Amino acid sequence: MGDYPKALSYYEQARAIRQQSLPSNHPDLGAFYNNIGNVYKNMGDYKKALSYYEKDLATGQQSLPSIHPDLGILYNNIGNMYYNMGDYEKALSYYEEDRAILQQSLPSNHPDLYSSYYNIGLVHENMGNYSKAYSFYERSVQTKPQSLSPNHPTLQQRRKNLERMKKKLQILSVIFFWKII
User: Fold this and answer.
1) What's domain 1-63's superfamily in CATH?
2) How far apart (Å, rounded) are the C-alpha atoms in residues 73 and 95?
3) Of 9, 54, 88, 105, whose Cβ has the fewest other Cβ atoms within 10 Å?
4) What residue spans do the TPR repeats cover (predicted)?
């Protein structure tokens, strides 16, 4: 476990072999790019991960319908890298694209959509847009997948974030009120 250089070597070898027999836009090649990106992400090399996720997205845009949920996931992966690198504007752009695709292609309680709302909330919180963060955290909690029990740890964490954001907004409204007076 955790032998990332070996994993990269195997993924690159497998990709090279498959690349000889597949067209450049074949989804299998995109999967290799995604897997290599995941390895770099796990190594903390977000810029390299981003470059492979972008290759995966380019492949997906050529081979998948424009509202295919897998495309949404590809946008989400890129958004995650920008988020990890602190570029919240770009992260938000990719998360919004992810959400737009998923809203068109998945049921309203699908786990990917639930996560998309949460990610957008995180970005807004980090950008200081607390009311928007609250709104998206609330959507995330409201659209929880049916597969999660009410006391699931992920759902509990998202409820805590929602409450934390609510308290921030209350504090800010009190501060604003006192500044006016």
Assistant:
1) Tetratricopeptide repeat domain (1.25.40.10)
2) 9
3) 9
4) 30-63, 72-105, 114-147
